[in-house]
Specification:
homodimer, about 140 residues, alpha+beta, 3 helices, 8 strands, about 35% strand
């Protein structure tokens, strides 16, 4: 298990892309829509880890709900795993709760699940697996 | 610039160490007190990045104030830099604000500064440099 990315909720992706370009000294290498999550995202590569900025594209997006409650800031922490269903089973066996146990489509060609923050000290933890490695 | 660690504010380090041991499938490799920040911390190595859990050791610790306001969760995102004062100057030139511009002692033998979250989309960004590399 290694850290794949850190997700940051933002109000305006264009504005925030400029902030993070200056901070990190480089441009986002990719921008995409994730229809299932109702978000528009950009990715910055920082060493082996990515910083993902997320803007809501609808009022009922998870990011819109987060911003309404907590304002802009770090939203989730994502770990890359080789076999997502095996990790779900392992963590369920250890008593962790999930927001979704069935892997769904995420950004960047990934299958993703989220653990419930009540299990993980208030941290929204994502597990993600490359789709190409699925099977 | 690369991600050095992700700091997570917790109420009880002993309890949270157990949670993250299960989540990450490994034990914390280090625990220490950071007197200047009034915190007790533990570190987990996850690939090239560390997860740092922080418990307040006094009511006026920054972590105690964070927990009072926001509950447990991700507290800061730390980037490793080679020359911290050069990075401070670069980022000041780009209009970023700092909580402290003069590097101070952090955990894990580091010199650290914090950017003001108002500059960085609500994310508390730390820059850190190995003390041994200072000069």
């Amino acid at each position: 298990m290694k850290i794949e990315h850190i997700g940051i909720a933002v109000e305006d992706l264009t504005v925030s892309n400029q902030i993070f370009e200056k901070l990190l000294g480089k441009e986002a290498y990719k921008q995409e829509m994730v229809a299932g999550e109702k978000v528009k995202v950009s990715f910055f590569q920082v060493g082996d880890v990515k910083v993902e900025l997320l803007q809501a594209t609808a009022h009922d997006s998870p990011i819109a709900r987060f911003l309404a409650q907590k304002k802009e800031g770090i939203h989730h922490l994502a770990f890359a795993v080789e076999n997502i269903q095996e990790e779900v089973e392992r963590l369920k066996g250890d008593g962790f709760a999930f927001l979704n146990e069935e892997a769904k489509d995420g950004a960047d060609n990934k299958l993703i699940v989220f653990l419930h923050p009540k299990s993980t000290n208030g941290v929204l933890v994502e597990l993600c697996q490359d789709k190409n490695a699925y099977g």
